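Possible race condition, two jobs.
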Amino acid sequence: MARQTVVLQVFVASPSDVSEERELMESVVAQLNQVWSSSLGVTYELIKWETNVRPTFSTDPQAAINTQIGSEYDVFIGIFWGRLGTSTPRASSGTMEEFESALARRKITGSAPEIMLYFKDAPIPPSKVDTKQLQSVLDFKSSLSDKGGLYSVFEDQAGFESSLRAHLSAVAQGFVARQPSSPSVDQSGSVVPIVSDLIDSDEDDYGYIDYFEIYEARQNEMVSSITLINEATVRVGEQLAQRTTEMDGGVRGDAREARRILKRVADDMNSYAGTMKNQLAILSSARESAFNALSNALALQGDFSEKDRDLLALQGMLGGLIDGTNTATDGMNGMRVAANAIPRISKEINKAKRTVVYELDAFLSEVESTRSTVTNIIESIDRMRSGQHP
């Protein structure tokens, strides 16, 4: 059966100094599409001038780009480092013109496009530093709060990739939650239900396959969320260790440099807390839906001759989920200790600590609920395989 898939267009805007991050987006989107196309019926399509703009003429080069890109994309991603870009007849740079167009459309629609801005916080080679361009980036960054905007900060490709995965995952989940159910069509042209239809429609006619399809889709979401958090936990731990080394290695007596490092510590922690908050919403919703569907599927399991083999395979899947929650719990408990151990050295650090600990506690509680539920189901499967009542 072929599922009807919704394509969300993602427009990537940036000056020329973040070409590596633009290339990285291709692999991130491809990997996310493998998950979301099967579990949510959503895929992302990248829109970039490199691939979506042909040679042509207009009043100026940026006008030619604007005409071909259009304004009907669903997500706007802006990436900045040390350059704002070359000015156009209408804005301080082509990237800024694209951002202002996206923001103007969002103000009209109230929701679209999603706008996500990323700022690279890494040393710029001295030969490539343009102080005027850099100051323009800093001025733009500082103006975003007045525009009602939040942004993400990253230091390298690993940090950018981790943030991008989490944020695009949250966008896909949010899009599906806002949409009415849409049908899939099999090869004969008949309309068949997709997972979101099954969840939202009358359950009276559901069968084992229907329930198990819901369970598998939602478990994929749970595993993805836990994996993203594990990666983010490792990453923020490495960042905090690096900051400690920087503080110990050469900033004593340099209050300005120390303040800069502390600001980066707070940004790292706030970004991590934001990732946890996004993934917590996904994990909580997926857990409830997955295990309700699985319980119903198990109630119908006795109708099938291959019951024991199917139950054994299911135990293996659930065991893998338990392993993932154990890894997540160990990492987050360690991060909670590390966060609490950071001295109360500045207002930014104190607020970031409080935010991280709050989100850690909430996520740990959700992970514990997931693990408890999975353990109970595994025990029920053991009883079913031994011939006892579940």
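Job #2 (started ~2 s after job #1):
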Amino acid sequence: MNDAHSQVLSSTRLETSSRHIPPNRDPLLLALAARIICPLWLRQRGQVHSVHLSPEAEQLLLTLRQDRVMVCSNHPSYEAPIWFAVGARLGIPLCFMANREFFDRPVEGWLIRRVGAYSVARGQRDREAAESTIRLLTNGGNWVVMFPEGENHHMHSVVAPFLPGAARLGLQALARLDAASEPVYLLPVAARYYYTTDMRARMRTALSGLERELDMAPVAGWQARLLRIADRVISASESHYRLTPLAEDNLRTRLVRLREQILTHAVVCLGIQPASNGKPLLARIRRLLTEADISLAERRESRSAWQRRVSLQRSRQVKGVRSHLKWLLAWYAVDDMLEVPPQSVEDFMDVVERLERGVYGRSRYWARRAVELQVGRPIDLRLWLDTYHTAPVHAIDAVTWELENAVRGLLTASAHLMTPLPEQR
């Protein structure tokens, strides 16, 4: 359920062509998923063995239970099942957007729909998904969970710039209610992940495995080993794009140059106009990912066998471009750590996970983790309704900024849960 909310609002040229799938909640399956399926899935996929919610945060959620609420969470990894389980435990019905292709998988699609998911067509202007979200809020009785970062980036101490979808849909729902006595709240929340066991042996194992795979001799120091491995991984990508680093270049400079080369290649491959270099990097990556999704959706809509054969090679090319763009997105959050190496075990292992994905094509979480959910002060959108009527863009941007800063503040406030990087012995 990664970037579904952003796709609803993306200004693209392709309208929704797939049938929209609304939620179809099954009370029996909801109870089974909350007690068994979600906890098992979280343990197996994310090594998440416990979820903590303070009594004060729990009381706030219960106080808002009868209101119209959009939960707006950071999105490093597995927040959707975490919030589903919390909602089921507290008796709060939650609905989530999920990418349309998930529903084409027989078991997964059947299951997620019956626990509250509804579809959004990725890379398309999905008016039906937007309307479903507004209708859920205006009808009441269900909360909606959104992830305004748009993509899960697997860097658990980072909050990426928020997209405006949550603010826009919330204000649209409030405007439709057209009654000052009917509040719609955006609820900022942050999930802080942290390891619950001594990680030194696992850190040594992870680094040694990467060094063997890359034919490197180990050196002393956690951070020195990590940066040498990162250097080798970036070098491999530079070779693929025929880039030669200069002697005075540091890792960050090389990564910036590599990114521009990948972005230029993606623009040429997708046949679109290049974005202004003045635009933020994340916005440029998001735009190209959306264009790639549009291109792939157009291929899926080809009707004749001849059209499908002709488009197959093109689809493979676009998938390759999308894979490289996802690599860029994964490394987007690593920038600062190439300048100032990670100071906590959690940040260190997040970078290791990025490197493993680049070297092995897969990654893992190495040990048991816990999650602390931080809940902030609800944003009452009624305070912005008059501004929205007269200056909608200003209101949406202001609410998005307020929401992003609230989530970032919650995540910063929970930094004490992280484990300082130990001395290597």
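The chain has two domains: 4-196+368-417, 200-360.
Logs attached separately.
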